[in-house]
Amino acid sequence: LRTLRSFGENTAALWAEEQKSLEAIYQQDFEVLGTAYWQIRLCKDAVLRIELPSGYPQSVPPSVVLVGSECQVGGLIKTLAEEWLPGEACIFGWAEEIARRALPEAQEHQAQSADVGQSGSREECSKEQLPPRIRIDDDGNHIYEPRTKKHRDAPRSVRDGQKLRVWDDESLDPAHAVELYHGEVVEEKKSKFQAHFAKVVNMGEVKWVHRELLSDDKLATATHNTIAYQFYDYTKSTQVLDYDDDHENGAGKCLGRLLKHGGYMGIFVMVSRWYGGVQLGSDRFKILNRVLQTLLEKSGVESQPKAPTGKNAKNKKG
Length: 318
What we know:
This protein is an alpha+beta fold. Helices cover 30% and strands 22% of the residues. The chain has helices at residues 9-26, 74-83, 91-102, 104-112, 156-160, 203-214, 251-262, 283-298, and strands at residues 30-34, 37-41, 47-51, 63-67, 134-136, 142-144, 165-167, 180-182, 186-188, 191-199, 224-233, 238-244, 267-274. Strands 8, 9, 10, 11, 12 and 13 form a 6-stranded antiparallel sheet that branches. A 4-stranded antiparallel sheet has the order 1-2-3-4. Helix 3 (91-102) packs across helix 4 and helix 7 packs across helix 8. The longest helix is centred in the N-terminal third of the chain and has 18 residues, at 9-26. It is globular and about 55 Å long.
């Protein structure tokens, strides 16, 4: 039997770090089958089996196979392997790409969950309503340009900073305004974190909250503003759960899983992080969850394990 030490100390350390990240992201859906064998449950019937060769991630990519699904993903996996770069820890990215492009359940989820900032109806809006960092382009889109501090020697995700956002006029509609809640700023190894949330019932409120939060001068300077939201869409009689990493790979999924497994319905959450120069590794996922959980508990937010049905499934707000 091979032991982790037999692969070399450097390889063992890299595997251990990636394993911690995957455990934090996927929780009970991630499983260690052996020293060099892992698996991730991507949905109810599909499992991604992973074999780690001795040269991963320094010189060769991992070997993966999708089990329990009729989807043919051999071509996709081959493409991912060809695009892989030496030194890249890629398992999370591959798992998400396979789930997004190949699995019917993942495609259905994407269809049901409208993206934050997706364009819709366009009505005239005065530029005086817009914060200085949000401009209107020639097509009427509202463009958010973050003010993230640049870190030359930091990891790529930190160098990338926040995403540029595109919103439509619905995000300005005062009919979608809801109360915002903010947690205390928590510092861990020079990085600072702050959680925020709002109670929402539709995508209009999700867009309004996201835009309103990023309109804050302080939050516009964060390295990442990771979001997740979950609510019951009464008009379509379906539960909506979605998230966005904001270039903090895996962070959005962590928040989404907290909402899902914690049974938090009708809620939008965001955790802001200001990078302080020290890499946190997988610990950043634990901190994200902790600062958000603390805010929810202090605010008295209760879980709702089941989506409303029957008489309770009525649209109380537009």
